[in-house]
Write a structure and sequence with these properties.
0% strand, mainly alpha, water channel activity, repeat, transmembrane helix, Glycerol uptake facilitator protein, MIP/Aquaporin, 63% helix, globular
Length: 246
């Protein structure tokens, strides 16, 4: 009885009552899970010389990570996971504008923290694969583990259109899934259908830019590689790096 009472008191003390803080923590954890799985699949693929993964397994892991992330945070924050989706909700007047910068910052922070975790998890593998150099280009580059880079042939205009169309398709699909007037998805299976949507976009629109679709997913890890030692080259258009997974 004493231990049960102690646990109840501890739960009461640790319980977060502020709704915004609860939503931010849920969003942070959901994005962390999303990026931990996504980037780990990419790290496993790259550092194993694609003997323990390929672009298809990386895309599949990225899609499944969306499913897990929505289950993690959906009940509290709605699991936006993506500033582009949060912005869409604001434009549709389903999300307050004042929350948008808060969610965008939290989503980026979650991606940044997940990048550091993946770096620790694959620290030995990354340094072994790269021969002791954190390169942003060349045959042993490792920058594309964390962020996506355009294919060598891609122009800036085509790259911009690629992201507009891919992200637009993602938002359109999610809105269709959420629309109660539309053909319904069985309750509780919405995250599974969203994961299938993400996977379909990745395997059909991923060759140009690696299919990031998510500003926080791209900027958070890119910022991490900048501060972790890859340097300012991660923010520049460099040939030979266009292989990052979604």
């Amino acid at each position: 009885m004493g231990s049960a009472s102690f646990l109840k008191r501890a739960q009461a003390l640790l319980r977060i009552r502020n709704q915004l803080v609860r939503e931010c923590l849920a969003e942070l954890l959901a994005v962390f899970v999303l990026m931990l799985i996504t980037l780990s699949s990419s790290a496993q693929m790259v550092t194993s010389f694609e003997t323990k993964g390929n672009f298809l397994s990386a895309y599949m892991a990225g899609a499944l990570s969306v499913m897990v992330a929505v289950y993690v945070g959906g009940g509290v924050s709605g699991a936006h996971l993506n500033p582009a989706f949060s912005l869409s909700m604001c434009l549709l007047e389903q999300f307050p504008w004042w929350k948008f910068p808060v969610f965008a910052a939290v989503q980026t922070l979650g991606a940044f923290i997940a990048s550091g975790t993946v770096y620790i998890l694959y620290y030995d593998a990354i340094w072994h694969y790269s021969n002791g150099t954190l390169a942003t280009s060349g045959p042993r580059e490792t920058a594309s583990i964390f962020a996506t880079y355009p294919a060598d042939y891609l122009s800036l205009t085509n790259g911009f259109l690629d992201q507009v169309i891919g992200t637009g398709m993602l938002i359109l699909g999610i809105l269709a899934i959420m629309d109660t007037r539309n053909k319904g998805v069985p309750k509780g299976l919405e995250p599974v259908v969203v994961a299938l949507l993400v996977f379909s976009i990745e395997i059909s629109m991923g060759s140009n830019c690696g299919c990031p679709l998510n500003p926080a997913r791209d900027f958070g890890p890119r910022l991490f590689t900048y501060v972790a030692g890859w340097g300012p080259e991660v923010f520049r258009w460099v040939e030979g790096r266009g292989r990052g997974g979604g």
